[in-house]
Amino acid sequence: MMAIEEPQIPESGPDRGTSENAWTTDQIGGEVVYRGGGPVTNGFRAVGEPTGKGVLVHVSGKPGTKCRGEFEGNDRLQALWVFSSDACGAFGFADLVIAHAGRTDPVGEITVESDYRDLNVRAGSGMLLRVKDKAAK
To answer: How far is Cα 97 from Cα 117, in angstroms, rounded to an integer?
Structure first.
């Protein structure tokens, strides 16, 4: 829940004197959003643009991970809310892993696992689920 809340607060902390349209925020995964007319950046590279309540970015895969970037040449801007263009995995949950991402049998079934006895996903938590159209080639 806190991992979802943090990207919605400016880097300078809660600020009643500055319009939300001028805030600089940090996405889940580390990219920076310059809402005052600037881009969404990954280091020094612009990857997208801010919107009123999120971002539109070019999705990319993080090198060295199983995470996918664009699907079959689809490099269009995509809405990722509070997530970086290369965000992947579980954020804000200690020892939580995505054991099965649903790409192989059973297709579409996602499994998460934790070393803890019980997993409690509280209200206010968020998930980014990217769906690939079966008909898309």
So the answer is: 14
Convert the pLDDT of each residue in 79-90 to its tens digit: 999 999 998 888
Non-local CB neighbours of 71 within 8 Å, separated by 6+ positions: 130, 132, 136
- Look up residue 92 and give its two tokens: 């804000």
Q: Dihedral sign, CA of 76, 77, 79, 85?
A: positive
Q: Which of 2, 11, 15 is nearest to 31 (CA)?
A: 11
Place of tokens 């499994």: 111
Ramachandran region of residue 37, left (φ > 0), alpha (ψ -120 to 50) or beta?
A: left
pLDDT tens across 80-132, in order? 999 999 988 888 887 888 899 888 899 889 898 888 777 788 888 888 887 77
Is the Cβ–Cβ distance between 41 and 47 less than 8 Å? Answer: yes
Q: Give the tokens for residue 102.
A: 């649903």
Residues 6+ apart with CB under 8 A from 34: 24, 40, 41, 50
Q: Please tell me the distance from the alpha carbon of residue 34 to that of residue 58, in angstroms, as a whole number.
A: 16
The residue behind tokens 């400016």 is 10
> What's the pTM value of the predicted model, to 2 decimals?
0.80
